[in-house]
Amino acid sequence: MAVLRVRPSKLSGEITAPPSKSYTHRAFMIALLADGESTIRNPLIGYDTMATIEAVKEMGAEVIREDNTWRVRGTGGKIKPRTGLIDARNSGTTIRLMSAIAALSPKPTRLTGDQSVLQRPMGPLIETLGELGAKARCEGKEGRPPVIVGGGLDGGDVEITGGVSSQFISALLLAAPQAKGDVSITITGEMRSKPYVEITLELLEMAGAKIKHDGRLTKFSIPGGQTLKPINLTIPGDFSSAAFPLGAAALTGSNVRVNNLDTKGAQGDKRIVTLLKDFGAEVKVFKDAVEVSGEGDLNGIEADCGDNPDLVPVLAVLGSVADGLTRLTNIPHLRFKETDRLRALATELRRFGADVEELPDELKINGVRKLEGTRVSSYGDHRMAMAFAVAGLVAKGETNVDGAESIPVSYPDFVTDMRKLGAKIELVK
């Protein structure tokens, strides 16, 4: 197990945001389905995205790497599993989105993963794929993985909940254009993490997919039998990852600039800009960069984070030392991530001396004057590890974060970048 050792630090300088994990996953999957050769530049190469790349190969695509450019020769939707097994490792995105793509194959594929992934809800997606004509079932209890999927998609009219994971909707949107018949999808309940569906739609449109939908993304109409064209894409920088050094600047009263951020793009987590301003930080936004200057004096905020669950860890850390009450609401879906993030944040931030109340679907945090260095667990969750490392930058004494080996899932250069900015942080294996 790797440990992060962190001591109080001031930060200064600029870094480049890592590529977007969400865009990388979807780009390779669409390239798999396309008829011809796609070019993907600057993808995120981490544990989760490598699981997707291996799955894309398993489904019949040829993947060629040339330095930081990847070429994918797609299948034109003619999915032909090579072994009939996909190991999604720790990646919930991989197992959910690839389950729908695997449904296009006449032959069954078994999709599994590590212990964390085996706890992820899959039932609504697998049931819906069955209603569209696939042979699909969950081997785990209560709709959990492993799952077995195949047999092809006929089409039809289906309903699916939006309250568990937007990945269910993204999965259906990826596969539906290549169903035999037309597909109509109605989303029931509130859809959380909607921006991730918007990213899926953006890339499908790039590939020429014809998808009609209403403005609220609750109804989709997709003609079947479509052919997707190859894509040519440079993966943008990731706001979800950039939120950690930007939040660290606000927390420590420092000045940090993060480059390679498309501030006009579809990523919902660019909302970190507005939220940091709400906390009281000074934020400057450029065409391809964000700069944060903090005085270290923050005030509490209230934020509905239903569409931005990946921002909650760093927001909770900021709220721990901000004056007054911080409420992060509408986030029950955080309980179904790599770990139960609501429980993990409440438990471990209290070790720092924070005043945190865990509710079924929100966190209430009363800011305290000082955090105390301590030993905390990341629960093997990359965003927990980075959030607690940020907390350690203002905690008295030394903070040790267990389970830091998970960080490369989304931000392989996190420790290097933070050290470049002046953070007293060390990875001990």
Describe this structure in words.
InterPro entries: Enolpyruvate_Tfrase_dom, Enolpyruvate_Tfrase_sf, EPSP_synthase, EPSP_synthase_CS, RNA3'P_cycl/enolpyr_Trfase_a/b. One of its GO terms (molecular function) is 3-phosphoshikimate 1-carboxyvinyltransferase activity. Belongs to the EPSP synthase family. Its EC number is 2.5.1.19. Its main location: cytoplasm. With about 425 residues, the protein is α/β, with parallel strands linked by helices. The chain has two domains: about 5-20 and about 235-429, Alpha-beta prism (UDP-n-acetylglucosamine1-carboxyvinyl-transferase, Chain); about 20-235, UDP-n-acetylglucosamine1-carboxyvinyl-transferase, Chain (Alpha-beta prism). It has twelve helices and 26 strands. It has helices at about 20-35, 45-60, 90-100, 125-130, 165-175, 195-205, 240-250, 270-280, 310-320, 340-350, 380-390, 415-420; strands spanning about 5, 10-15, 35-40, 60-65, 70-75, 85, 110, 135-140, 145-150, 155-160, 185-190, 210-215, 220, 230-235, 255-260, 280-285, 290-295, 300-305, 325-330, 355-360, 360-365, 370, 375, 395, 400, 425-429. The strands form seven sheets. The chain has a four-stranded mixed β-sheet with strand order 23-25-1-26. Strands 2-15-17-16 form a four-stranded mixed β-sheet, covered by helices on one side. The longest helix has 14 residues, at about 240-250. The mean pLDDT is about 95.
Which short descriptors sum up this protein?
alpha/beta, 2 domains, four-stranded mixed β-sheet, UDP-n-acetylglucosamine1-carboxyvinyl-transferase, Chain, 3-phosphoshikimate 1-carboxyvinyltransferase activity
